[in-house]
Design brief:
256 residues, alpha/beta, Alpha/beta knot, Trp Operon Repressor, Chain A, 2 domains
């Protein structure tokens, strides 16, 4: 199945060029991903291809007008019947669960805003969902669209060289990823953990689970609060915490 993502943007080259690299490029070459680009400037009635105007009520900046954005969305809809997604700071937080959900859809339209935003009447009449890639301000929705495309592309079956890679990524099970190592075995006196060179796959799997839980506990405790850990996971996390406390005590005996 091919997933098609249409992007309504004032800077189509920005999307096209960025998606000519990495996993999005591979997904397109394998015909797993199809991109469509629609520029509101091509649909404006203004002879100067203007698509923005001053906001009613005053204030700084400009606002994208209804007509060119609406008509560009209507054109994009001819490619399929997927939802229209407006990428804006007011939207729900995009996460791995959302990426998995949208990666199963055959079609979607991403609306990338610019300037101070888009006339609210477009949002009311044309947009199905609003999503945000984070609580910060970008110059436009193109960067958010690229985050969205990349996150979905790697989930498309066949896009990655190793089919297990996506399933082991951070956030796939609600946890952060475990540490990774490669050759050489020792760098600047720091060696790869013994368990990874011992050849016991059960021990390696157990170590990776423990490290994933421990990293999440240390760096993103908010994620742990959202999960219901199994008995095995609780035991591994408790073991990780004891090991960390023991290591800290050895480094600083006064702590004990």
């Amino acid at each position: 199945m091919t997933t098609r993502i249409d992007v309504v943007t004032l800077f189509p080259d920005m999307i096209r060029d960025a998606c000519s690299w990495g996993i999005p490029r591979i997904a397109q070459e394998k015909q797993l991903l199809e991109l469509g680009l629609w520029n509101p400037r091509d649909y404006t009635d203004d002879r100067n291809r203007r698509v923005d105007d001053r906001p009613y009520g005053g204030g700084p900046g400009m606002v994208m007008q209804v007509q060119p954005v609406h008509d560009a969305l209507q054109a994009a809809r001819t490619a399929g019947k997927g939802p229209v997604i407006y990428l804006s700071p007011q939207g729900r937080r995009f996460d791995q669960a959302a990426a998995r959900r949208f990666a199963e859809l055959p079609h979607m339209i991403l609306l990338a805003g610019r300037y101070e935003g888009i006339d609210e009447r477009v949002v009311e009449q044309d947009v199905d969902e609003e999503w945000s890639v984070g609580d910060y301000v970008l110059s436009g929705g193109e960067a958010a669209a690229l985050v969205w495309i990349d996150a979905l592309a790697r989930l498309l079956p066949g896009a990655l060289g190793d089919e297990d890679s996506a399933g082991q990524d951070s956030f796939m099970d609600g946890l952060l990823d475990y540490p990774h190592y490669t050759r050489p075995e020792v760098v600047n006196g720091k060696a790869v953990p013994d368990v990874l060179t011992g050849g016991n796959h059960a021990d390696i799997e157990r170590w990776r689970k423990k490290q994933s839980l421990g990293r999440t506990w240390k760096r993103r405790p908010d994620l742990l609060k959202q999960l219901k850990l199994s008995g095995e996971q609780k035991a591994l996390l408790e073991e990780y915490i004891r090991e960390q406390q023991s290591a800290e005590s050895e480094q600083d005996p006064g702590r004990g």
